[in-house]
Amino acid sequence: MSSSEETPQLYQAREPVFPRRVYGAFRTLKWWLMAFTLGIYYLTPWIRWDRGPNLPDQAVLIDLGNRRFFFFMIEIWPHEFYFVAGLLIMAGIGLFLFTSALGRVWCGYACPQTVWTDLYILVERWIEGDRNARLRLYRQPWGAEKIRKYGTKWLVWLLIGMATGGAWVFYFTDAPTLLRDLVTLQASPIAYGTIGFLTATTFLFGGFFREQVCIYGCPWPRIQAAMMDEDTITISYRDWRGEPRGKQRKGEAEGSHGDCIDCMACVNVCPMGIDIRDGQQLACITCGLCIDACNDIMDKIGKPRGLIGYMALTDESRERSGNAPKSIWKHVFRPRTIVYTTIWGGIGLGLLVALFLRTDIDMSIAPVRNPTHVVLGDGSVRNAYDIRLRNMNAEAREFELSVVDHPDIALSMEGVEGQVVLVGPDEQLNQRVYLTAAPGTDEGNARSTPVRIWVSIQGEATRDYRDTVFNGRGQ
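The chain above was modelled as a monomer; its predicted structure follows.
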């Protein structure tokens, strides 16, 4: 190849997307959902919840230092992580359910990337103007106006990113205390580092990467095809009604063009920069803005609404043949969605039952394996156990340990007189416990004996137990 020949480009440079302002039912719904979700995110750490003098009063708190999670009246301990796992599984199945019924409704309305991108575009529009003004500003050379507007926009974006990162760290410690420490520069370097990282990612993802995150970074567009079928309701263009495109010109026969006048309104409002008239695409997040734009144009030219709308493939074939579409309930309630709903509801019900049946005490036992047993001078056999006692209550309580089923086995605790130990409020205690079988007893002579250790609360009817094994001489 000669030096004069240009090297062919393998990849096309990204064209920035400047969505036009649009009004309509779906745009209004997105505004309300954006306000609702951002309100929850930013305000939740500041909600107070009185749990008594010994517990934090933040309603939602991920207390990593004490390895606990507080959600209003619910407190989750590390050994109860199955609650968190269950909620994550429910979230995944819920995503499958909504995608199966309504397509990428999560991506279009509630995904954090969508919500923050909408907010950043709103700021961009306030400062630079609507689509045409932003395009002109983007194409013009750098000057005082462009520097001023871009600098103002980036500053507001940066402040939003800082608020986003700051709100996130407030979930992990007392929010008012951390805010004071942040302002006085006394907070942990981890807090500043986390805020800085989340500020940068929010600034870049919402301000610059935008649709690229959805197309290239998110795995869900590639997975969604397995969740959708011909009865899934998604956004489609009714090409049998809109084609051939073009305006009706003077002298042309009536009906020589379809309802689509090729105004590009649906393309100009799309935050992903795609043309829905080209059919289903991986980049489409089914946000519904193209529907609002097209309906507005149809109203202006006196054509029926719905050239672009939510429908399923089965409805498309029915409409092509002149039949009415199926009821929306027949699309939503079908075997696949019923199975997802049943699984989702079953997991939720199981978590609720486990939540209400759990006790506020817990015990775990770990036998000491080296050595498995010790023969004392009087011939008795002793086993050692490390027992963890958890008092999941706001008041200190006395825990009593006992072995009921084996009267020849005595229980004692290291450093404690008797069989009662005090555990502080909302704390856990690691205690070395000894079980000793009297000389000549069956438990002492056997290789191993199943033993049940009971724990009860002094002055209360609350009891619990754990099963373990007592190792004897093995004769």
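The chain has a mean pLDDT of 90.
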